[in-house]
Recover the amino acids of this structure.
């Protein structure tokens, strides 16, 4: 492989040193020059704009977006930038499940794509393989404002940015307005208690509100963590060491879930991420928690229930409204022989105009991770998409309030919270609450409280 | 025990123990109904279980997008068949490339594996040298090491060989699990061939290699074919190494290309997926149908003589 023959840059080159030193001296001596530099005037004074190297070759690995044209637009933008700068760009897309082994193999071999999409807390898992991109994030902060706290929590490891915030895949409720009306529910519930009451009424229509409590890569985590947080429960304290799952708040959350299931909310431990989509498209359920993919596919492909489908944000618990969304960021890998070119390309793709062209084509499946990208026109283009915009702000990460770490990632991949709910919701919501909590506590202690 | 009594003629009568006569009547297997119950019904059930996945793949691949999720009618039939998924698969994706790559990799890696396995199997089964049994067991244990453990070190090896994104990465790594399996299988066949045949050839002046090529290998052809079929099928369906070592769409194999380009986020595009699965399974099915007799004979022989 060609990049294997090239030696990756380490440390500062003479050119980088002179450029940075020059910018620093100029900033001190002639601040008005820097200030007058248009859009770059917001760039942090120490930021050095990375320059692409003509003739470089960049390979980027990320997941396959649900919206095919969005991937095509991303590739088009990357290729356009490559053509303009004499850089060969290759974008490889794989499914979310396949991204992890490919990333692990690349890290192990110390070779592979120049840029890898980091999902959730992977920067914490692969810290040493991810280059420091603080300079580039500072440039983006200068242009686009503050990053979303969840992206920041995942990207920043021990104060150093190891990935550049890329996108949020918001998760909200998609539901059938016709069945809700038929059941006498005039609007989507705004609290978990209301949701349980609505589920009881929807049961009479034969089309229940349904969700997985199994090991679904996205849908299970995005459901049961917000329920836990909404009642004040948490896996671990903010110190990231003390397991706190065995609490009254956790019991309250589980009791709500058991009550909801007894009332008519249907849980499916056998469902993986595609199953609730298919159940909805097949007219088998009246509502479910998901990304915008169900609504978008109805709208652009099936046209069966588009008019009677709406979306709603997360209900609130006694402790407030919480959400969990899929978070993707881009890391520049340490083995890249053209890391500076990779950084330059990522900055170009995060340019507001470029980015919003992409989110518009993504039809609401993606939201921007910086302040200036929040009021994306795509969410105004269809009022039904607003729910997906609304769930970004209350978003948290697995393990919250502890900061993301290898341990929170481990607890997430073991589905400890989802399993706890699943045990308690077995047999029609009559599972043993204490046994479920004890099992979760044991698993969490094995992760967080080991030396 | 015989008990004596007197008959009318005065001769002692010898009572013989009663022997149960075989029940006279129609044996169930003789009749048509019997054959139906004993043979055809189980066979039909077996066929349904075996062929239903193929039937499901076929009908799903001919359903339109709206029909795929319409459960108001029986999902077992197609109301308005369409070839749109096949057209899309063959013209809008790189499926023809994936099929070609899969065939190239499966054929070459099978040939390499067979060559090595025949030599290794013959050596371990026929040549008496110290440690042959241990080596045989060692090879079998190697086969038990799961690819999920091996892919990380193999990634390192492939990087050192600069073979990422190159079909040779697969052609060279597939034998790591094919050779142990085929060797173990062929050892059984070679052990089953009488030593006298080869010894006769050796007495007649054949060299060891001539005896192997002209006596042992021709007799082991059923086993070699069975091993070849297994190796080909394993290579054709292999997923993990192809996922890790191949990057560009044009160099992917069917299992990886199909899952990477026909699954988007949490939405599965079932029409194209089923069309690809059906087309992808055809070569293996054809191969099996041609060599099924050898395959069954080989499996049985290997099982009892090993």
């Amino acid at each position: 492989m060609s990049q294997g023959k090239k030696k990756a840059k380490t440390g500062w080159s003479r050119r980088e040193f002179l450029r940075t030193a020059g910018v620093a001296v100029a900033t001190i001596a002639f601040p008005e020059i820097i200030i007058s530099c248009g859009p770059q005037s917001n760039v942090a004074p120490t930021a050095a704009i990375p320059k692409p190297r003509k003739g470089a070759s960049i390979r980027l690995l990320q997941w396959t977006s649900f919206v095919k044209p969005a991937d095509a637009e991303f590739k088009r933008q990357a290729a356009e930038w490559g053509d303009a700068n004499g850089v060969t760009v290759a974008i490889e897309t794989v499914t979310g499940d396949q991204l992890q082994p490919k990333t692990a193999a690349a890290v192990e071999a110390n070779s592979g794509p120049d840029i890898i999409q980091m999902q959730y807390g992977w920067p914490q898992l692969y810290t040493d393989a991810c280059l420091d991109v603080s300079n580039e994030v500072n440039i983006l902060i200068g242009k686009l404002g503050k990053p979303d706290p969840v992206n920041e929590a995942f990207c920043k490891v021990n104060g150093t940015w190891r990935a550049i915030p890329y996108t949020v895949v918001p998760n909200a409720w998609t539901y059938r307005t016709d069945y809700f009306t038929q059941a006498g529910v005039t609007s989507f519930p705004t609290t978990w208690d209301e949701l349980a009451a609505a589920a009881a009424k929807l049961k009479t229509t034969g089309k229940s509100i349904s969700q997985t409590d199994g090991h679904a890569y996205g849908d299970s985590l995005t459901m049961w963590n917000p329920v836990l947080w909404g009642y004040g429960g948490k896996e671990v304290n903010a110190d990231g060491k003390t397991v706190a799952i065995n609490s009254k708040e956790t019991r309250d959350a589980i009791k709500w879930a058991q009550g909801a299931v007894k009332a008519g909310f249907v849980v499916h431990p056998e469902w993986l991420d595609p199953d609730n989509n298919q159940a909805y498209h097949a007219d088998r359920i009246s509502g479910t928690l998901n990304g915008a993919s169900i609504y978008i596919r109805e709208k652009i492909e099936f046209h069966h229930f588009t008019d009677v489908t709406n979306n709603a944000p997360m209900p609130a618990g006694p402790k407030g409204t919480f959400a969990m969304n899929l978070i993707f960021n881009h890391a520049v890998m340490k083995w890249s022989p053209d890391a500076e070119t990779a950084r330059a390309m990522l900055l170009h793709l995060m340019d507001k105009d470029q980015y919003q062209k992409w989110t518009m084509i993504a039809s609401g499946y993606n939201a921007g991770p910086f302040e200036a990208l929040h009021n994306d026109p795509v969410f105004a283009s269809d009022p039904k998409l607003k729910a997906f915009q609304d769930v970004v702000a209350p978003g948290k990460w697995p393990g919250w309030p502890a900061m993301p770490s290898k341990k929170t990632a481990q607890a997430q991949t073991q589905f400890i919270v989802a399993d706890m709910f699943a045990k308690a919701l077995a047999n029609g919501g009559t599972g043993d609450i204490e046994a479920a909590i004890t099992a979760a506590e044991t698993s969490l202690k094995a992760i967080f409280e080991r030396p | 025990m015989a008990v004596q009594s007197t008959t009318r003629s005065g001769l002692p009568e010898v009572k013989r123990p009663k022997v149960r006569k075989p029940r006279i009547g129609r044996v169930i297997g003789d009749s048509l109904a019997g054959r139906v119950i004993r043979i055809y019904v189980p066979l039909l059930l077996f066929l349904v279980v075996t062929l239903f996945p193929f039937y499901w793949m076929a009908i799903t691949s001919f359903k339109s997008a709206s029909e795929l999720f319409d459960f108001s009618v029986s999902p077992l039939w197609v109301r308005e068949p369409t070839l749109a998924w096949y057209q899309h698969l063959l013209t809008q994706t790189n499926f023809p490339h994936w099929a070609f790559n899969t065939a190239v990799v499966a054929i070459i890696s099978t040939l390499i594996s067979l060559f090595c396995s025949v030599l290794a199997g013959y050596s371990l089964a026929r040549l008496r040298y110290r440690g042959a049994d241990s080596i045989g067991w060692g090879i079998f244990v190697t086969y038990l090491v799961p690819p999920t453990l091996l892919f990380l070190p193999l990634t390192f090896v492939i990087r050192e060989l600069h073979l990422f994104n190159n079909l040779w990465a697969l052609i060279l790594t597939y034998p790591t699990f094919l050779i142990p399996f085929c060797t173990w299988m062929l050892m059984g066949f070679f052990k089953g061939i009488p030593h006298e045949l080869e010894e006769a050839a050796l007495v007649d002046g054949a060299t060891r290699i001539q005896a192997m090529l002209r006596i042992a290998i021709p007799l082991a052809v059923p086993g070699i074919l069975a091993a070849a079929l297994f190796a080909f099928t394993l290579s054709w369906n292999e997923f993990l190494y192809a996922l890790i070592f191949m990057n560009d769409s044009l160099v992917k194999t069917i299992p990886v290309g199909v899952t990477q380009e026909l699954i988007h986020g949490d939405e599965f595009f079932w029409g194209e997926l089923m069309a690809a699965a059906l087309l992808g399974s055809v070569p293996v099915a054809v191969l099996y149908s041609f060599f099924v007799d050898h395959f069954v004979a080989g499996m049985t022989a290997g099982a009892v003589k090993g």
Observations:
- The first helix of chain A runs from residue 2 to 5.
- The longest strand of chain A covers residues 57-63.
- The CA atoms of residues 298 and 304 of chain A lie 7 Å apart.
- Residues 54-169+326-381 of chain A form a domain with the D-Maltodextrin-Binding Protein; domain 2 fold (CATH 3.40.190.10).
